[in-house]
Design goal:
By secondary structure, this protein is an alpha+beta fold. The protein has a single domain, classed as Metal Binding Protein, Guanine Nucleotide Exchange Factor, Chain A (Beta Complex), CATH 2.170.150.20. Helix content is about 25%, strand content about 25%. Strands 1-6-7-8-9-5-4 form a 7-stranded mixed beta sheet, with no helix packed on it.
Amino acid sequence: MTTRRYFLLGLGAVAAIGGGSLLLASRSHNRKLLGSQETPADESFEIQRSESEWRALLTEDQFAVLRKEGTERANSSPLLNEKREGTYHCAGCALPVYRSADKYDSKTGWPSFTRAIENAVGTKLDTSLFSTRTEVHCRRCGGHLGHIFDDGPRPSGNRHCINGLVLTFIAF
C-alpha cells in the first residue's frame, strides 16, 4: 500500500501545482482589453429582468447563452458569414456592441471581432473548464456574449469570439 499512498500524494501535489499555476495565470491574464472594461462581480446592470421576463423575450437557445453563459454550436450562426456593413446589437437589450468594420474570419466557427464598440461590453475572469479565459458580456444587461482571446490580428491582438445567436445585425 505504500506505492498507492505515494501515488495519491503525488497526484495531490500535481493538483496543487496546477491550481497555483491557474491562480498565477488568472492574475497575469487580468489585463485591459480594447473596447471593454473589467466588471465587478457584484455589479447590477442598467437593465434588470426576472428570469421569466428574459425567457419571454429570448428564444430558448438565446436564453441558454445570454443568461446561463452557454455556447452555441460552432458554425451554426448565420451571422458567421455576414459580410454587409452594419452593427451587431445585443439580443437582450439592443445595445450596439460590435461594428462590421471590426469583424474578421477567425476560422473558429464563431463570429469574431478585433474589438467592441467603446464602452459597450464588460469583462470578467472565467476559470471554468480548467482554463483561464476572459468572458465578455453586454455592459447594459449583463448578457453573456462570448470570450476574448489574445490570438487575434494586429493591432489589438484580441479576438472577441462571440456567439452569433445573441446578436442581432442591423445593416447600414
